[in-house]
Amino acid sequence: MAQKQTAPAGAVPPRRTRNVQAGPRSQAVIEAVRTATLAELDRVGYAAMTMDGVARAAGINRTTLYRRWPSKAALLGNLLDSEIDRLEQPPLPPGLGPALDAVLAGLADNLSRREGVALARTFTAPEPELRDLARASRLRALARIRAPFEAAAASGEIAADSDIDMLAQLLFSTAVLWTLEQGLDRAAQQRLLVLVLRAAGASPVSG
Question: One MF term in GO for this entry (predicted)?
Fold first, then answer.
């Protein structure tokens, strides 16, 4: 009997829109569904949101919706993938401090958007069906945050045996929770950056 294959620990899961067809019509449907999902989340919240309500708000039939997104969690995943894509795209400057500063600024920008608020709430949501979704999105975000630490450890900027997992979690979890409580403005970003750099044993950035 063939054994079930599992992804290695820490592996970044594939994007949930990987098999969605491309093209102007498909992109129009994706954008309509994203807009409708956000509107329904704002109107009734995740628990009360329905697939029928999203289909009506998007102006598409239920068959089209279910073919691409078979559940409410998949609809939310459509939002989260786009937000993580935005976080992953900009090239990072050299040096641990400048790179983390850029990552933190991008994360704060994402979390200030409606989609970003949905992302942050997903990480702390009680619904069981959102656990895998939250984990997949969190792993992608953490991979982006880990990269500067890994480069710094390889170059000797920080110790080779630095606890990169814990450092990345410190930055990410603090940023998400701070955003949910009071918003992560530039002053708060700098405070968090200094804290993380000190924890890593690196020199703080100037400015």
Answer: transcription cis-regulatory region binding
Cα–Cα distance between 164 and 68 in angstroms, integer? 37
Q: Which helix (H) or strand (E) holds 97?
A: helix 96-111
- Asked whether residue 94 falls in the same domain as residue 125, the answer is yes
In a domain, 15, yes or no: no
Render pLDDT for 158-171 as a digit per residue (tens, 0 to 9): 999 999 999 999 99
- pLDDT per residue over 11-43, tens digit each? 444 444 444 445 557 889 999 999 999 888 888
CA distance 157 to 113: 34
Domain range spanning residue 65?
A: 24-70
> Residue 34: CB partners within 8 Å, gap ≥ 6?
78, 79, 82, 115
Same domain? For 91 and 185 the reply is yes
Distance of alpha carbon 72 from the chain centroid = 17
Do residues 93 and 189 share a domain?
Answer: yes
Q: Which two tokens stand for residue 166?
A: 């814990």
Q: Is 180 exposed, middle or buried (0-12, 13-18, 19+ CB in 10 A)?
A: middle
User: Could you tell me the CATH number of the domain that includes residue 50?
Assistant: 1.10.10.60
